[in-house]
Fold this sequence. Notes:
Largest interface: A-B, 47 and 44 residues
Largest sheet of chain A: 5 strands, mixed
Radius of gyration of chain B: 25 Å
Number of strands of chain B: 2
Number of helices of chain A: 19
Number of domains of chain B: 1
CATH topology of chain B: MetI-like fold
Largest sheet of chain B: 2 strands, antiparallel
CATH class of chain B: Mainly Alpha
Oligomer: heterodimer
Number of strands of chain A: 12
CATH topology of the largest domain in chain A: D-Maltodextrin-Binding Protein, domain 2
CATH class of the largest domain in chain A: Alpha Beta
Shape of chain A: globular
CATH architecture of the largest domain in chain A: 3-Layer(aba) Sandwich
CATH superfamily of chain B: MetI-like
Distance between the termini of chain B: 35 Å
Helix content of chain B: over 70%
Structural class of chain B: mainly alpha
Strand order of the largest sheet of chain B: 1-2
Helix content of chain A: 40-55%
Distance between the termini of chain A: 44 Å
Structural class of chain A: alpha/beta
Strand content of chain A: 5-15%
Radius of gyration of chain A: 24 Å
Strand content of chain B: under 5%
Strand order of the largest sheet of chain A: 2-1-3-12-6
Shape of chain B: flat
Amino acid sequence: MRRRMVLGASTLLLVSGVLGACGGKDKDASDGPVTIEFWHNYDAGSGQVDVLEKLIKEFEAENKNVTVKQVYLEWEALKNNVVSGASTGTLPDVLRGDIAFVPQFQSLNVLEEMSALSDYKDAAAGVLESANSTARMGDKFYGIAANTNTKILFYNKTLLQQANADAPKTLDDVWATARKASGGKTIGMVEPWTGVWNVGPYIWSEGGDVLAPDNSTAQGYINGPIAVKVIQQLADLYKEKALAGSSMDPGAIGDTDGWAAGAYAMELDGPWREKSNKEAGVDYGATPLPAGSKGSISVLGGEDFMMFKTSDDAHKKAAWAFIKFMTSKHAQVEMAKVGQLPVNKEALSAPESIEAMPLLPVFSEALKTAKSRPVTAKWGEMENIIATKVAEAITGQKAVKTALDEAASEIDKLIAGK
Amino acid sequence: MSNMAGKRSVWRTDWRLYTLLLPGLIFVAIFTFYPIGKMLAMSFFDWRIGYRQTSEFVGLENYSQVLADPIALRALVNTLMYAVVTVPLQMALGLIVALLINGITKFSVTFRLAYYFPVITSWVVVALLFRYIFSNQGLLNYFLADVLHVVGEPVGWLSSRVPALVVAMFLGIWKGIGWNMVIFLAALQAVPKEYYEASSIDGLNGRQQFFRITLPSIRGTLLFALVMLCIGAFNTYTPIAVLTGGNPAHQTEMVLTWMYFQTFNVTGKMGYSAALSIIITLIITSITVILFRTLARKGE
C-alpha cells in the first residue's frame, strides 16, 4: 500500500513538473526581426482572408523587420482560445474579434490598455467615435475599432407585396406589418436570439434601457414599464405566429435558410444579410430601423483590435504599427470591398466603399444613432440572463413582468457580487 | 512483518510487469487522475483562469450555487429522464433484435450490419438529420400536414421541453440498438446449446427457456450494458446540442450542455462547472455501485 502511494505521489510530481514546463513562450526582446501573431475571424468565404493576406504583404514591405503570422479562428474558437490561453500566457500579439470580447477578456486581465499608448488619441480620432466606444471601459480604452456594423430592417419585397403591405415607417408599423405578412408558412419576423443584441433596439427606440446609464443597476430598466411593454409586444407576436427564432423555438427554421425559403418577411439584421440575400436571390429592401416614440436606435456590432499584456515591448510596438495600418483608409477601403463596414471616417465615405456596399448609406445613417451595449465586466453573463428571461417571457413560460423582474434581480446580484 | 516480506518478494519477482505497466500508468495519471484531482480542487475555488490572476478559496460556495440553480436542476432531471427512458428501451430492443438474428441462419450478417449501421454513423450527422425531420417545416410535418392532412398546422416537435426531449430520446434509442444487439448477440452465442437441448427434454417451452436459461446466462453482459449505458446517458451532449441547443430558454439542457454553456458561453465560471462535474461524477459512481451491489450479488 505504502509503495503504491509513493509511486502515485512521484507520478503526480512528475506530471506537475511536465505541465509546469509547458507554460511560457519564448520571446525575442531585441530590436531584431519580430514575428507577431494575429488571431482573427475574417470570413474566408467572402474573400476577406485573401484581402488580409494581401494587406499583410503590403505592411511587411513597409515594415521590413516585422512578420505577421495570421491565424484564422472561427468566433467561438477565437474566444475559447483566449480563455484557455489566459492562464498560461499563450496568447497572440494582436486579435481582431467581436466587440463583446473586450469586457470579457478584460476580466481575464489579459488586455493591454491601448489608451496608454502615446499616439492612441491620434489613431482614435480617425475612426468613428460610436464604434470606438465599444472598446472603452470606464475612462480607459482596451482596443480600437476594427470595423463596425449595426442592424437595419431587411424586408422581403415579394412577401410584403403579397400581404398588401408597404415597407414600415414606424416601429408600430413594423409590428402591424409582421402580423399582416404572417399566415400559412410565412412568419412576419425572425429574431434568432433574445439577447440585448436583438431586443435592445426596440427597447431603446421606445425610450427604455436595459441597465442604468452608469451600469449600477438593472432594477427599473430591464423590468421598467417600457421594456415590459416591448417584450409583451414580442410575446403577443410570438403567440400569433408572427415572430419566430431558434432560441425561442428550436424547431423554427434558421434565419438564413428561412430567408432563402421565403419563410420570413422581415428581420433586423447586419450587413451579412445583404450578401446572403443576394446569393439566395431574394428580392429584398432595407431601411434603418423604423423609429419608435424616441427615435431609431439600433445596436452597434462589429469588431475591435486588441493587444495583450503577455507580449514584450518589441512585439507590442510591431502590433500597434500593424493595428494602425489596418485602421488606415487604404486597408479599410480594401476590406469594405469584401463586406467589412469601415470605421475609418474617410473610408466610410469613399466612393469605392459605397460602390462595393450599396447599402452603405443606409448603414451610415443607422450608425449615426446606433448604441453600443453596456461595456462592463460580466456583461456576457448579464446578456445571457436577459436572453433566458426574455425567451421565457416571449414563449409564455412566465408572465413578462415576472420574467423581467427576475432578470433585474439576478443582474443586480451579479453587479453587487465579486 | 512476514506480510511485509511476502509483499517485497512479490515486488521483486514482478518488477518486469510493473515496468511494463508504468508507461500506461503515467499516461492515465497525466490525462485522467491529474485533471480529476485538479477539478476537485477547482470546485472549492472561485477559479480565475485569467493571466496572473489568483483564485479565491470559497469552500462549498460553488456547490451551493449549483444546487440552488433551477437550470442545473432541470438539466439533471432532463438527464435522468433521458437515462430512465433510453437505457431500458435500447437494451430491450437490442436484446429482441439479437434474439431474432440469433435464430436465423441466412442473412445474419446483413441484418447485423443493418442494425449496427446507426452506431457507426456520426452523432452530428444523424442529429442533424433528426432536426430536419422534426423541425417545424421538416419532413414529418410535411407528411402530417401536406400529404396526410392529419394536422392543420405544423406540430412543434422541437419547440418545447417534453416533445424535444422525446425526440432526443428517440434518437438515442435508435442509435443505441445496434450496439446492444452486437453485445447481446455475442453473449447469446456463448450460451451452451446443451442447456437448451436438456431443457427441451425436460419440457420447457420457449418462453420458459428464455427466462430460466437465456436471461440468467447473459446476466453479466446485461449488467455490463446497463452500467455502460447509464454512464453514456449522463454523457449525452451532441443530440441536444444539435437538436435544440438547450433551447427554448434552457428548457432542454442536459448536464453536459449546461456545463459547457457555463464554462464557455459565460466566460470562466470554472469553479461552478467543476462543482457540477464533481456532483455528476458522484451520481454516476453511486448509480454504478448500486447496480453492481443489487444485480451482481443475485448472480452469484
